[in-house]
Design goal:
This protein is of the alpha/beta class and 199 residues long. It has eight helices and six strands, in the order H-E-H-E-H-E-H-H-H-E-H-E-H-E. Strands 2-1-3 form a three-stranded parallel beta sheet, with helices on both faces. A three-stranded parallel beta sheet has the order 5-4-6.
Length: 199
């Protein structure tokens, strides 16, 4: 989307302003567990994006066999560290870890992926919160192309905590009439044919 360049410029200017006022750069701590190729690739892309806009990216790596309490302890240390501005946990996590439980330990003020239950609840209620990246991007695209969702029939296919549920809440907050479909939905084709917007 051509508007992304404008967003990056805004972010760069915002960081420059912070530097001039406080003489500090924001620090984003990204936790990665294990060596999944796609996860390593994503984290490296995030770190490069941080560098591009003037954020300090801090990568924290753990062995895939880490126990849950050790990972939670690290999150709590990052929550208490005033030098850390935001915390990301690269997911999926290994299956022996309770992903949602771990997300919930991130301080909402540092939960830049918006994946904790508190962040989701705040977002759903229209309160200040970070928004998960893909749902946020979808809303930005709709806004950029002046697609007014108010009063429109929006159908979201999927109900994941990362995409389906958050985008449904964002559309609802923008006054769309929202239907959520999933693997148990009957007559999906008929519902889609009646939609103004499909995610």
């Amino acid at each position: 989307v051509s508007g992304i360049g404008e967003k990056i410029s805004f972010l760069e200017n915002n960081i420059k302003e912070r530097l001039s006022k406080h003489n500090t750069k924001p620090v984003l701590a990204t936790i990665i567990v294990g060596k999944r190729l796609e996860s390593v690739t994503y984290v490296n892309m995030k770190l490069k994006a941080c560098e591009r806009v003037g954020i300090i990216g801090k990568k924290i790596e753990f062995d895939e066999n880490i126990i849950e309490s050790e990972l939670i302890s690290e999150i709590e240390k990052l929550n208490q560290d005033s030098n850390i501005s935001g915390i990301l946990i690269q997911h999926p996590l290994p299956s022996h870890l309770n992903e949602q439980k771990i997300f919930n330990y991130i301080d909402p003020k540092k939960d830049v992926d918006g994946l904790s239950a508190t962040s989701f609840g705040n977002m759903a209620m229209g309160l200040p919160s970070y928004t998960p990246a893909t749902p946020g991007a979808i809303m930005e695209i709709l806004n950029y192309y002046n697609i007014n969702v108010e009063g429109k029939k929006a159908v979201v296919v999927g109900r994941s905590n990362i995409l389906g549920k958050p985008i449904a809440m964002l559309l609802l907050n923008a006054n769309a009439t929202v239907t959520i479909c999933h693997s148990k939905t009957n007559n999906l084709n008929d519902i889609l044919k009646d939609a103004d917007i499909i995610v």
